Amino acid sequence: MKHDELGDVYCSVARTWSIIGERWTMLILRECFRGERRYDHFRSKLGLGSNVLNDRLRLLTERGVLERVRYQDHPARHEYRLTAKGADLYPVLVAVMAWGDRYENDVPPVTLVHRACGHAADARLTCGHCGEPLGWRDMTAEFAPGAW
């Protein structure tokens, strides 16, 4: 199955991966979460070629993850802002970062600090009902009709 065919599969992981699973997409989103919005910043910070960056930004705007907003008329220039749909990817990025900190870096390159209390924050999956921490063995999957 090709990457672009994942969006047609009745599976939330496959459909999500069809949007965020390309090589540079999460790094573009990382920059957005850092407050960056401009094409030139993405290009210089990530070292991407125009064709790759244009393709990723086009996909993210078409799928509603980013919004393309004009900030200058002459010449016309646009910036890319996270939508609510894009902002909802923050826990995904933090989870990927936590995994990399645990298994791929001796010293984490970045520490996320909770603004309200000033302490380092860590990624945790908890039950939305009772607040208990969750691991994969604490879950079961109930499939919708026609799934899998």
Describe this structure in words.
- It is a single chain.
- With 148 residues, the chain is mostly helical.
- It contains 6 helices and 2 strands; from the N terminus they run ααααββαα.
- The protein has helices at residues 12-20, 25-33, 39-46, 50-62, 84-87, 90-103; strands at 66-72, 77-82.
- The longest helix is centred in the middle third of the chain and has 14 residues, at 90-103.
- The chain is globular, with a radius of gyration of 18 Å.
- The mean pLDDT is 93.
What gross morphology would you assign?
globular
Strand content: 5-15%
CATH arch. level architecture of the largest domain: Orthogonal Bundle
The class by helix and strand makeup works out as mainly alpha
Query: Any idea how many domains?
Result: 2
> What is the CATH domain class of the largest domain?
Mainly Alpha
Task: Write a concise keyword list for the protein shown above.
single chain; 148 residues; mainly alpha; Arc Repressor Mutant, subunit A; 2 domains; two-stranded antiparallel ribbon; 2 strands; 39% helix; globular
Could you provide a short overview of the structure?
With 148 residues, the chain is mainly alpha-helical. The protein contains 6 helices and 2 strands.
Summarize the topology:
Layout: H1 12-20, H2 25-33, H3 39-46, H4 50-62, E1 66-72, E2 77-82, H5 84-87, H6 90-103
Antiparallel strand pairs: 1-2
